[in-house]
UniProtKB/TrEMBL annotation:
Signal peptide: none annotated. The keyword Cell inner membrane does not apply. It comes from Kibdelosporangium phytohabitans. Residues 12-79, 106-153 form the RNA polymerase sigma-70 region domain. The lineage of its organism: Bacteria, Bacillati, Actinomycetota, Actinomycetes, Pseudonocardiales. It comes from the Bacteria. Keywords: DNA-binding, Sigma factor, Transcription, Transcription regulation. Belongs to the sigma-70 factor family. ECF subfamily. This is RNA polymerase subunit sigma. One of its GO terms (biological process) is DNA-templated transcription initiation. The keyword Transcription regulation applies.
Length: 156
């Protein structure tokens, strides 16, 4: 696809469009924005495919999901989202998409680690904001996120 292979891009699109939309929809408050972000993701993938390197970006799936997450969080932040972190956490516990593949790993995490990852990934919160939600020091929130990611990686 890095050489502009339209057929390969079409296959990638068909394979990942549902998951990309699911991530965008979990982060964004409405379907229209999620659809717009999904389109931006695939435009970005097409434009930057020649620079993709598994050594620097991980697998292709992870690379596309990272682009999707970044675009969705950027869109959310550009809207001046005024939901409180507690409201976000409540919404996330009922709306995290099942098709992300990491869902089974998330369930196995201790609740505070799972909630912290959901707030960071789907809510776009920083570790400082997560520390405020859980009323813990910022360095403890950073450690929670790191430990949760290591645990997911080891289960993966």
């Amino acid at each position: 696809m890095g050489a502009g292979d339209e057929h390969a891009f079409a296959q990638l699109y068909q394979l990942l469009v549902g998951t990309v939309f699911g991530i965008a929809r979990a982060i964004l408050p409405n379907t229209t924005w999620a659809e717009e972000v999904s389109e931006l993701v695939f435009v970005d993938v097409w434009r930057t495919a020649c620079r993709y390197s598994p050594d620097h970006h991980g697998g292709g799936f992870e690379w596309v999901m990272a682009i999707a997450h970044r675009h969705a969080v950027d869109r959310l932040r550009s809207t001046g989202d005024t939901r409180s972190p507690h409201d976000m956490l409540e919404q996330l516990t009922t709306s995290v998409p099942e098709q992300t593949g990491a869902q089974s790993g998330l369930v196995a995490l201790p609740p505070i680690q799972r909630e912290s990852l959901e707030l960071a990934y789907y809510g776009g919160l920083t570790y400082t904001e997560i520390s405020e939600v859980h009323c813990i020091p910022a360095d403890k929130a950073k450690t929670l996120l790191r430990d949760a990611l290591i645990s997911l990686r080891d289960r993966g």
